[in-house]
Amino acid sequence: MASVEMPAPMQMPQAREERVAAQVLVCLGPTFAEPGSTTGFRVIVPLLEALHARLADGPNGASPILLAHPALPSMPEERLRNDLVRSVAYTPASDARTMWLQTAADYRVARDLMVEHQCTCCLMLGAEAQDVAPDTLLAMIDTVLRGQADLAVPCYETEIDEALLNSALIYPLTRSIYGANVRMPLPVDLAMSARMCERMGQAAAKALPGALMWPIAEAAAAGFSLAEVASARRPDLQRGDIDLNGIIALIGSSIFSDVESKAQFWQRTRPLLEVKHIGQNAAITANKGAPDKAEANTLIDSFRLGYGNLHEIWALVLPPNSLLGLKKLSLMPVENFRMSNALWVRVVYDFLLAHRLRTINRGHLLGALTPLYLAWVATYVLECDTPDDAKKHVEALALAFEADKPYLVSRWRWPDRFNP
Amino acid sequence: MFSQVHDALFESLKRVLATMAAFVPGVVVLLLAVVLFALLGAGLAWVVRRFLLRVRFDEHIGRENSAGVADWSPSHSPTLLMTRLVFWGCVLLGLTVGIFGFDAAYDGRFRISGFILPYVAHSVGAIVIFLVGNVIARFLARGVLISAVNARMQYARALSLGVKWMVLVFTGALVLNNLGIGGSVVELAFGILFGGIVLTLSLAIGLGSRDIVSRSLEKTATDLNTSPAERAASEERPRTLRHF
Fold first, then answer.
1. Predicted ipTM?
2. Which pLDDT belongs to residue A18?
3. Residue of A312, A347, A394, B159 with fewest CB within 10 Å of its CB?
């Protein structure tokens, strides 16, 4: 039997003494397949030891932690030799392009191992997880083991000029579509109950191995409970050669496809999902100062270049009202450059509809979204000097997404209806 | 003399009528074959459409191939693409059967299918090349335009137009070549046009990117000449935005 003792630091709830029967599967992502000292799975040992110190032993004194790590390419049979942790190696199948995020292949592996080893909680860790605070992971595991949530995800602190795609698109869209107020809906690390893991495994079985998965959406559609754990800043992820266009194409296409696949669920009006928030952090900080305002000029130039060249393509996707708004935006001087939340929301919803209707090639569609997104970022940079400004800006955007959801539902059902 | 003229006219009329009498049945056979096969094609297309709708073919294709067949098909529906392929395949088959039927029904001195059939095949090929070439030109032009804009190239539209016309010129040359029109003139004209477009694009990109290349070279030279400490100091520049 295992137990979880909650740590005290970082405004987390106070430690609890009760012991919870459990066996935790810690599943490392494929990035840990590198045999090097900085990226191989051995770097995770100190973190595992810290977790082990807080968890009680399993049945017959067995370790409460089962570590699943990717097999080393050079030594497929190599396993972690550690007295505290039992380990099992698996063969990673993820697409290298998306290795820094959890993919369908990772969820399949986790589901299979959960079933095979009869674990009660699965903790999936992404790249560079060795530097994640053990308190955060313990809080996530504890929440799941106590049955308070089927899915626990972290809410990492970010700088004011970080995670902008999350603030602009992923968070507000997930919140408005699924009613789940979770700040980071595409988690790199997460803890799942057995049934949540099973659900994700089933969803992953229908997807390509390298496809991204959206656990918040799955949990919302299944009616499972959610928890969000406040956490310190996460180390930067190594994302390889993928640039902004690649990220928008990868994540935009994935989230749009996921929304399309769950249309039956989100078209009905539902109350907001109850999300258990554990701990407290600033969410957005400005430890390294406010964003550089000079960046806004470059972003606005990119938008104007896009407006001059991609106007015809946008006209295939956006209604006249939005095009008029973009025209006015392109003529604004830098100091007054502001993209309204309403305009950005309509842009996202219309691109989502065009993605569903295949108005133009989906790769082209998401490529054409980039200059519009940069216009939003320019507005964000110009408007937000402090973390409070940023929080208010993101909150206002999320509310705008929610307020305009009837437009999306209406056009989803009747796409050919006149739309000024 | 009048009787000779009369005889000549009468003889000519007789020959024309005889030729037409031999020709019309062939035409009727040709039309009948085309119409029958078109009807057959419509029926088959209907069956195929019903079947594909029943098995949710569009959804399967959309899920498994997000940027493939569906993007090339009419109204972005692979089912519609399949049904149209079946219909036009049947019409083409009907045309071939009709030409052979015409040949059998026409009691001429030469076998008309001997030169009509290859030409029909080439014409169909030319039409297909023309359509596919246009689609590819539009697709590539749009892709290049978007990529160039996102790479902040000021000459994105020129680049896109250049790529589009390169593909169109190539397609035009292939179509004319397939139809057997123009001969070596087409090859020569194609070479001149294609080369001209490539040269224009090269000059445009080369001149437009001159500053970028020189900055890149300067940076490389500076990096080689600076010490690690200076390099570390220069890396402490204002942070750039992080999107994810």
1. 0.81
2. 41
3. A312
